[in-house]
TrEMBL record:
It comes from the Eukaryota. This is Las1-domain-containing protein. One of its GO terms (biological process) is maturation of 5.8S rRNA. InterPro entries: Las1. GO terms for molecular function: endonuclease activity. One of its GO terms (cellular component) is preribosome, large subunit precursor.
């Protein structure tokens, strides 16, 4: 005899409709319906038999909607986030749940729930409330976990949809003068990818989920770069100072192949969406090579070797070919000439070779006659947009390049 299951929704279509309101598809351009979804779940709660993941999704989403410093106090926002997060975790791993007695950590491992969620729940319950940045990030990750754990299984044919992220640009704009605050926000945004190889759940992340994390992280970092006047520079410093692009404990001669694989796609996604980022990153890299006065023997310094390897990779690899138009070759050369050492001299030779290639390519390349005027206009508009973004940071062209072939008047 089939087992009868009672649900607060009448049909599966109602549950799917609420799911689409919590997790709108990327193609959706209509109004924000998350508040309606929360109201619907509150009605279902009165009917009983409401699955915990559905209630937890509503509580976490409602906390995001409550995150408005213009209407609510910061303490109220933190308390709402903490209450929603603690209820989400407790409902899954509470030791009083019927069955074999296990600790919260054991239950979390059985469910595939990150152990850091249990730790943060303990901190929010028994100690001081975590910072707003930590709570926002935990809420985002919780909604991502709930999608994989419950909502994706409601309709197996549904494509993965990243949860709606918590406010980013609003926070950065409010704290634009607080460089430490922006740095902390960037560190928190990168934390999930930085822990990806550490096996927080003792399992490697699935490819689709990892790609989803990368896309979400890139979107948030681009928002930070655009919202803060020094966002691109601060992001570059975090990538270099926090052992992101140069692994901690790296020795002289160690390969950076795995580091390229892990971070290159994310960097390219940011550079494509915020043209000033790549220029800022390479300038900070060359500054470390040229102006680190504390280091005398730069040739045998593992960090300097790694920075040079990154710059050489960006300047010469095919993966970065389309993005190299955003680089400021003149500044990189000037920095190398200002303080000659082993790595700046080596980098200078690479820069001169690449400059010669660019000059040769600019002379020989002409627009094919088969190209339409519309395509040419799009190329010009993209180039203008890149130039404007760099001009905002104080860079401008010294003179226009005359691309006529040699011998033509």
């Amino acid at each position: 005899m089939a087992k009868v299951v009672f649900t607060p929704w009448k049909t599966q279509a109602q549950l799917l409709a609420v799911r689409d309101q919590f997790y709108p598809p990327p193609s959706y351009n209509g109004p924000d319906l998350r508040s309606q979804a929360c109201a619907k779940v509150s009605i279902w709660k009165l009917r009983g038999s409401l699955p915990h993941p559905v209630e937890a999704t509503a509580l976490l989403t409602d906390a995001i909607l409550h995150d408005d410093a213009g209407k609510n106090s910061i303490f109220s926002i933190r308390a709402t986030y903490a209450a929603a997060f603690c209820r989400f975790v407790t409902g899954l791993v509470d030791a009083k749940i019927p069955g074999m007695r296990k600790t919260m950590f054991q239950r979390a491992i059985d469910l595939g729930l990150p152990a850091s969620f249990v730790e943060l729940r303990h901190e929010a319950t028994h100690r001081e409330l975590p910072s707003l940045i930590v709570l926002r990030n935990a809420t985002q990750r919780s909604l991502e976990w709930l999608w994989d754990y419950y909502w994706a299984k409601v309709d197996p044919h549904a494509a993965p949809v990243p949860p709606v992220s918590v406010p980013v640009s609003a926070y950065v704009e409010e704290n634009d003068g607080d460089e430490l605050g922006v740095k902390e926000f960037i560190r928190d945004t990168l934390s999930q990818l930085m822990k990806g190889d550490e096996g927080e759940e003792q399992q490697p992340p699935r490819k689709k989920r990892k790609a989803q994390y990368q896309t979400t992280t890139a979107t948030q970092l681009v928002s930070i770069c655009k919202a803060s006047r020094k966002g691109a520079i601060i992001l570059s410093r975090v990538l270099l100072d926090e052992s992101v692009l140069v692994p901690a404990g790296r020795r002289l001669g160690d390969s950076l192949h795995d580091t390229f694989i892990k971070w290159e796609q994310l960097l390219q996604m940011i550079a494509e969406s915020h043209s000033a980022f790549l220029s800022a990153l390479t300038e900070e890299m060359v500054n470390d090579l040229a102006f680190s006065v504390q280091i005398k023997d730069t040739k045998n310094n593992a960090y300097h070797e790694a920075i040079y390897t990154w710059l050489d990779h960006i300047l010469r690899s095919t993966e970065w070919r389309s993005s190299r138009r955003l680089l400021s070759f003149s500044y990189l050369l000037a920095a190398c000439e200002a303080n000659p050492n082993h790595w700046t001299d080596t980098l200078k030779r690479v820069l001169l070779k690449e400059e010669a290639k660019r000059a040769k390519g600019a002379v020989s390349v002409s627009v094919p006659q088969t190209q339409t005027q519309t395509e040419a206009k799009i190329v010009d508009e993209n180039t203008d947009a890149d130039a404007c973004a760099l001009r905002d940071l104080g860079w401008e062209s010294l003179e226009l390049w005359d691309s006529r072939p040699l011998g033509v008047a």
